[in-house]
Design a protein that fits this description.
It is a single chain. With about 130 residues, this protein is an all-alpha fold. The protein has one domain. Helices cover about 70% and strands about 0% of the residues. It has helices at about 10-35, 50-65, 70-90, 95-100, 105-120, 125-130. Helix 1 packs antiparallel against helix 2, helix 2 (about 50-65) runs antiparallel to helix 3 (about 70-90) and helix 3 (about 70-90) packs antiparallel against helix 5. It starts with 10 loop residues before the first helix and ends with a helix. InterPro entries: DoxX, DoxX-like_oxidoreductase. This is DoxX family protein. Belongs to the DoxX family.
Length: about 130
């Protein structure tokens, strides 16, 4: 067993760190759309508009991901939200993510897809509930 192979034992913790950091940054997109924090460059979205609904998904879904609660179904929904965001709002401007500002949407889409398949990793409510049953 090589030294790098021994790092595999920390996979659940590394996954948890990725989950927590992703959730915090993702939630900022929601707080910007819902509460104006940080101040949005393009103003606040109208109530019940697609952008507002996106903000609700980003804030509430981000909270669930942060705590690792219902991680797999929430991650599946958020992955889909980010796929829709890319194709609906970014790709029509230019297909290249580096030119249309959609690189974050693509990364979020695939990170959430990873959580759908792997689960939350360590330090999660899902993990605590699983061990209680």
């Amino acid at each position: 067993m090589t030294r790098l192979d021994s790092l595999s034992r920390y996979t659940p913790q590394a996954l948890a760190v990725l989950r927590i950091v992703t959730a915090i940054i993702f939630m900022l997109h929601g707080t910007q759309k819902l509460f104006g924090i940080p101040e949005p460059a393009h103003g606040m979205p109208e109530l019940f508009s697609l952008m507002w609904i996106g903000g609700v998904l980003e804030f509430v879904g981000g909270l669930f991901i942060l705590f690792g609660l219902f991680t797999r179904p929430v991650a599946f929904v958020l992955s889909g939200e980010m796929a829709v965001a890319y194709w609906m709002f970014h790709a029509p401007n230019n297909l290249f993510p580096t030119l249309n500002g959609g690189d974050a949407a693509i990364l979020y889409c695939f990170v959430f897809l990873l959580f759908f398949f792997t689960g939350p990793g360590a330090w999660s409510v899902d993990g605590r509930l699983k061990h209680k049953t």
